Records
---
Amino acid sequence: MIAPDADPRSMHERMLAGDPYIADDPRIAEDAAVAHDLMDAYNATSARQGPLRRELLETLLGSVGEGTEIRPPLYVDYGTHLRLGARCFANFGLVALDVAAITIGDDVQIGPHVQLLTPTHPVEPGPRREKWEAAAPITIGDNVWLGGGVIVLPGVTIGDDTVVGAGSVVTRDLPAGVVAVGNPARVVTRLDGTAS
């Protein structure tokens, strides 16, 4: 682990680069506080407040495409590192821990209580006790369907047109055009009709 004084970059710069950082840095804490205020305001809206919801999403997130809907509650770390394409739908309870970038393509369907988790923590007890963290980005291609309760771990890419069954835990990249299920998620069918 890099000692805090051995790297001239700020903790915020380290976090954005995907390098180890300490999360209680004042700049990081302020960014999270701003995001949580916006998240709380978004989660307090009703379905009848469509324009306000959209305005809050556009302020909170890095980008949100036309026709995209996220049903509250939505939970993020920073929001600004989460980008969603056009015509996406996320059902209730999306958790998008966007310490690193989370990029979601167009026409993606996300079931209830899906978790997109970019943070990583050291396995060694010392650095973990010292509050070191890191993160790895998540990328979800176009026309992906994540069933309810899916968990996507740090550093994973899911290819276009792939379906991930409810309750699956995606621990490694999935190719385009497959159905994957289980913990860890494994390909069970190719959508071109061939067996895996």
---
Amino acid sequence: MAKKPKLTLQQKRQVSSNRTRRMASKRPTSELDDNQLGEQQAGKVIGRFGKHADVEDQLGVVHRCHMRRTIGSVVCGDNVLFRPGKDLTLNVAGVIVAVEDRKSVLTRPDYYDGVKPVAANIDQIIIVSSVIPSLSLNLIDRYLVASEDVEITPVILLNKVELLSDEEFKDVDKQLDIYRKIGYQIVYTSCKTLTGLEQLSSCLKDKTSVFVGQSGVGKSSLINALLPDANETIGDISDISGLGQHTTTSAKLLRFELGGELIDSPGVREFALWHLPIDRLTYNFKEFRDYLGGCKFRDCKHGNDPGCIIRKAVEDGEISAQRFDNYHKILSNMDELRPAHIKV
């Protein structure tokens, strides 16, 4: 018997996609009949689980819903129109029929599917970092660029500060001062000593926020400290990789008693920026903006180009040399990390 040909990863994905489409074409156009559904009403997505979403109505009742195939995407924080099911004993008893316009949306690039939304209607992005696995200013800069690109206010949070000696804390504070000087808010926290939790609570009050950051930096521990009833699973740091283990597997929206909401989304170890055009990347380093268009040459790469006023500003101490170096590190990796099928 002849051996079956070995399929490439792309061929396997295509076979799987074709099979899914064939199966979908055999299913009815709606998982629920029209007479099983109530009147259309407004709601908010507070959880996303695979092909379904939890929608909270205006009375606080949560309905697990299907999504109409005509809807492009549904994420936590979306305001939607849905039809609740009349039989609440069903596991999935409702259908989302439309997503209202978003005032903001946090996105991240996906290797296969391009740019994908992560959360919607966000007021601020809390960039959670930690001294463990390690403090990476380059990673912080990646998140800041992503925040600037979607025009959502970022806040830098350094967690697990109880692990720092007084001298180490002074050194870390000096490193992060470059962000304070250009207008970013910085919060220091410790779930063990409760340091900074009151400041963090004040920062979150009356806003819709989202935590982003590497796995293992303590996002779930912070949520448990702020909302003890959340019961977030806490992961350990791998002894082999030094990286955190993913503990949040689905996005959900949590509410604070004093006002404000927090969207907890699956951890992201790397926040790629390969989907951005170079001029957009440059613009998203916000301290560069006052100098853009002032270089001697229009195609200035802001490196060793003659007449580059951004490099001159670095030499004069007006722009952080660390940020300038991180900009070029990100820039140098963009083409290398960009999938071949994605065009910018």
